[in-house]
Specification:
The complex is a heterodimer of chains A (266) and B (307).
Chain A: H1 6-29, H2 46-52, H3 55-88, H4 95-107, H5 110-123, H6 130-155, H7 158-166, H8 171-200, H9 203-208, H10 216-224, H11 230-265
Helix pairs in contact in A: 1-11, 2-11, 3-6, 3-8, 3-10, 4-6, 6-8, 7-8, 8-11
Chain B: H1 2-7, H2 13-41, E1 44-45, E2 52-53, H3 61-71, H4 75-82, H5 84-117, H6 120-135, H7 138-149, H8 154-161, H9 175-200, H10 203-211, H11 216-227, H12 229-244, H13 248-253, H14 261-271, H15 275-306
Antiparallel strand pairs in B: 1-2
The chains are: A mainly alpha (266), B mainly alpha (307).
Chain lengths: 266, 307
């Protein structure tokens, strides 16, 4: 019935090679002994060793991690509430504006989001720094969280909630004991997405940051503008390795929990 | 479903809280900032803190508010219309976004189509493979291309070794490099919506077409493509809109002669410190994107309601 033709295979293989080749090249060259990035000078881990002594990069990485942890958690809270409101509350007053504000940031150019938030902070006379970046990332990521959690809530078998309420459970208790455990995998996935988005963001952070809150992408960007450098290859490789391990673990966990939770999904 | 909803007490405090918290957050940090951008785009650049005038002075009462409105002007927009730099910038952004989206469609469709035809177990692995690069930093992936495209980078080495060229061509700081970067970065955004639609496509329809004597290419054109149009629209919007305002890719891979609009906003803001001009450029960009954004919202809302 469904036959995979040679052309199909060709398209898939070429696509995957295109997606991964640049990353593989980057990682291989991070182990290059030569300072000239274009010349292969044998294997070496010296750039990783130099990285360990680079205080600027290390502090930027720690700021990025803290921003991502806080903003991903806030965004997950806000986004989950928004998804519940959109899926479960039917038509409420102002729903259209609400839904518009959820979907618009998904495609909004980052330059505009960054600029507008910065002008807000200036208008409110807020000192820019760690917390302004957190607020900016939370706003951007919450919309992605909403979409992820929403898609799980739409699939959700509502009769489970109805059964709980028929048996006398109040709404909050129903939510905590029935709904929340069932949408937890989606919430976890959404948190990870929000975390990755925050860790990745350069443009919005550049607009909303202040003294003492230089994130890793801002740091990398200022180095990269001047050209290719082996130390930056090393930073990027570590970043890629961490992300790959995290995503693969998460998808494995999701698969295991999905398999275990299958009967309850009916 | 309707039953469960009606059972929820309509006025419960918890329910209000669930809507109010994200609602208030988005109003304050998404809508209000936009209004501020709009307002500043009507202001004048000034050597002050903040660097624009007039500033709304509530302390001066009604007189302050009146003075504020009298100070607003459309000068920045007149500048946008008269200075060819801005116009070129918009044209270039639209052109790059349009061509990139077409290329993404041409490259993404065969990949998504092939993925949808593989066995289920393979499909799951392929989806993870396509999504994975999306999780690694945007910036890093563009930087990876800087490695490859530089003068003595791998691409030129390969071309020279294969005797395709005799002189290493210049890739970085050209539009070609921008296109490579765009297609590379946005490919998952095109493949995934297309795959989601193609994977659900009923194979019986194609078999029926074949039984009725329709050649395969024709069945593809008459059955598969029209049925996958929601995926095509979603993928195209998901790529086109952010590409128009893209900053990192043209900044790192492109040249400095004709900036894209995202770069113009950036340099007006950080370089020239002309906040009102940069706000006006941003407002004009939003106006340009309003139609595709509304289309996208429409499509996203419909998709989420269907589940």
């Amino acid at each position: 019935m469904r036959r995979v033709t040679a052309f199909n295979l060709f398209a898939i293989v070429l696509g995957i090679v295109f997606l991964y080749l640049p990353i593989v090249v980057l990682v291989i060259y991070s182990f290059n002994a030569s300072r000239l990035v274009a010349v292969w000078g044998g294997w070496s881990t010296q750039w990783y060793a130099e990285l360990a002594g680079d205080a600027a990069i290390l502090s930027a990485a720690s700021i990025s991690l803290r921003v991502a942890l806080v903003s991903a958690s806030l965004a997950t809270l806000l986004g989950t509430l928004a998804a519940l409101a959109l899926v479960r509350f039917g038509r409420f007053r102002g729903r259209l504006l609400f839904a518009s504000m959820i979907y618009a940031p998904l495609v909004m150019p980052e330059v505009i989001t960054g600029l507008s938030l910065l002008l807000l902070f200036v208008a409110l006379a807020v000192d820019r720094g760690f917390w302004t970046v957190v607020i900016a990332h939370t706003t951007m990521a919450a919309c992605f969280v909403t979409v992820v959690v929403q898609s799980r809530l739409v699939d959700f078998d509502i009769s489970l909630e109805e059964a709980a309420m028929d048996l006398g459970a109040p709404p909050l208790r129903t939510f905590l004991t029935i709904t929340l455990p069932l949408i937890l995998p989606a919430i976890a996935a959404a948190w990870m997405l929000a975390f990755a988005l925050s860790l990745d963001d350069l443009v919005i952070a550049s607009f909303t940051t202040g003294p003492g809150a230089t994130t890793l992408p801002i740091r990398i960007y200022s180095e990269v503008r001047l050209g290719v450098k082996p130390e930056i290859n090393a930073v990027c490789s570590i970043f890629i390795a961490v992300v790959c391990v995290a995503v693969l673990t998460a998808s494995l966990v999701a698969k295991l929990t999905a398999a275990r939770g299958a009967p309850t999904r009916l | 479903m309707i039953d469960a909803k009606s059972r929820m007490p309509k006025t419960s405090l918890a329910r209000k809280f669930v809507v109010a918290l994200p609602y208030a957050w988005l109003l304050l940090f998404f809508l209000v900032p936009f209004l501020i951008v709009l307002k500043i785009s009507l202001s004048q650049s000034a050597i002050a803190q903040p660097p624009y005038a007039p500033v709304l002075d509530f302390a001066a009462g009604w007189r302050g508010i009146a003075r504020f409105f009298a100070g607003l002007s459309f000068d920045n927009y007149r500048l946008l219309g008269s200075d060819p730099l801005y116009l070129l910038s918009y044209v270039k952004s639209l052109q790059i976004a349009a061509f990139s989206t077409l290329m993404l469609l041409a490259i993404g469709y065969p990949i998504a189509y092939g993925m949808a035809r593989t066995p289920r177990r393979v499909q799951a692995v392929l989806v993870v493979l396509v999504v994975l690069p999306f999780w690694t930093s945007f910036l890093i992936r563009i930087y990876a291309w800087m490695n490859i495209l530089q003068r003595d980078g791998l691409l030129n080495k390969a071309l020279l070794a294969l005797h395709i060229v005799h002189e290493p061509p210049v890739w970085l700081a050209t539009d070609t490099a921008i296109y490579i970067g765009m297609v590379y970065s946005y490919l998952p955004f095109m493949v995934l919506p297309l795959y989601a639609v193609l994977e659900k496509l009923d194979q019986l329809l194609l078999e029926a077409a074949a039984d009725l004597g329709c050649p395969r290419w024709k069945a593809f054109w008459l059955v598969t493509v029209p049925l996958s149009s929601p995926g095509i629209v979603a993928g195209a919007l998901l790529c086109f809109i952010p590409i128009v305002g893209e900053f990192v890719i043209p900044d790192l891979l492109g040249g400095s002669n004709a900036p894209m609009i995202g770069q113009t906003i950036w340099t007006e803001f950080f370089g020239n410190k002309d906040w009102p001009a940069s706000a006006a450029v941003a407002v004009a960009l939003v106006c340009l994107l309003v139609t595709p954004i509304v289309l996208f919202q429409h499509q996203a809302m419909r998709a989420s309601e269907q589940g």
